[in-house]
Design brief:
Shape: globular
Protein name: NADP-dependent oxidoreductase domain-containing protein
Distance between the termini: 40 Å
Organism: Chaetomium fimeti
Order of helices and strands: EEEHEHEHEHEHEHEHHHEHH
Strand order of the largest sheet: 3-4-5-6-7-8-9-10
Pfam family, one: Aldo_ket_red
Number of strands: 10
Family: Belongs to the aldo/keto reductase family.
GO molecular function: oxidoreductase activity, acting on the CH-OH group of donors, NAD or NADP as acceptor
Structural class: alpha/beta
Number of helices: 11
């Protein structure tokens, strides 16, 4: 396994989250969690782990927890050297039961981060080191903060230069002690190419002898946001890892932020938002 001095983001309870995560949604997502076991995903995950990508992201709704568990077991990497996130989405009505079922599929005694609703009991049972939520809007969090005994430590949501979230939402969460993790961080080059950022990203990538993908990941990291991304290709894994060491200048960060605001694009949950809603 490659040894990487991982930068981390601290959660309010002291848990340290590696700044880059390797996801198992999107391309690996199963329409039915009971679909056949995918040995190809196990090989991809083992390759990612071997390269040092120790932060793995899963969810009960992805249908990939079994593959994550097998990959971890076959990698031979000690459990305490890994950071494993899962999300209880399908089983939110009984979160403790759902998390226990996830742990069975993962072949683990605990996860490092569990993102769901109704999360207090799962942490009390010692099944996760930290609790979080996923795809929560500001009004959701405001309601939770008024009543909860333990606030969520992290919110995982879509975040990229074309969806920077309006009303200062990301800085507001960080000020409240809620860290932010992002999915679809590479949207400007993967699912929304041809926009105003193309030339900016290309120019910055050339300057740093890297790729637009690495520049986007570095931009998110520079915002103290933990991006989650995935690939089946080893060279792309190397590209993602290079983003951890890539340091953009303040001007480059600002250029991406400013130009990104010229376009609005949302990949997830379009049915829930009006076309011009940037929240």
């Amino acid at each position: 396994m490659a040894t990487i001095d991982w930068p981390t983001v601290p959660l309010k309870d002291g848990v340290l989250v590696p700044i880059l995560g390797f996801g198992t949604g999107t391309a690996w997502y199963k329409d039915d969690p009971n679909d056949p076991f995918n040995p190809e995903l196990v090989l991809v995950l083992k390759a990612a782990l071997a390269k040092g990508l120790i932060h793995l992201d899963a969810a009960d709704s992805y249908g990939t927890e079994r593959e994550v568990g097998v990959a971890i077991k076959e990698s031979g990497i000690p459990r305490d050297k890994l950071f494993v996130t899962t999300k209880v989405l399908e089983g939110w009505r009984d979160a403790p039961k759902a998390l226990k079922e996830s742990l069975e599929r993962l072949q683990l005694d605990y996860v490092d981060l569990n993102c769901l609703r109704g999360h207090r009991l799962t942490k009390a049972a010692g099944l996760t080191r930290a609790i979080g939520v996923s795809n929560f809007q500001r009004h959701h969090l405001e309601a939770i903060l008024k009543t909860c005994t333990e606030p969520p430590a992290l919110n995982q949501l879509e975040y990229h230069p074309y969806l920077q979230r309006s009303d200062n939402y990301v800085p507001w969460m960080q000020q409240k002690g809620i860290q932010v993790s992002s999915f679809k961080t590479l949207a400007p080059v993967t699912v929304a190419p041809g926009g105003p950022l193309d030339a900016v990203l290309s120019s910055i990538a050339v300057k740093h002898a890297t790729t637009p993908d690495a520049v986007l990941l570095s931009w998110a990291i520079g915002k103290t946001v933990v991006p989650i991304t995935t690939t089946s290709k080893g060279e792309r894994m190397d590209e993602y890892l290079s983003a951890v060491a890539l340091k953009l200048s303040p001007q480059e960060q600002e250029d991406i932020t400013k130009v990104g605001l010229e376009r609005h694009f949302r990949w997830w949950g379009k049915a829930f938002f009006k076309p011009d809603d940037r929240s």
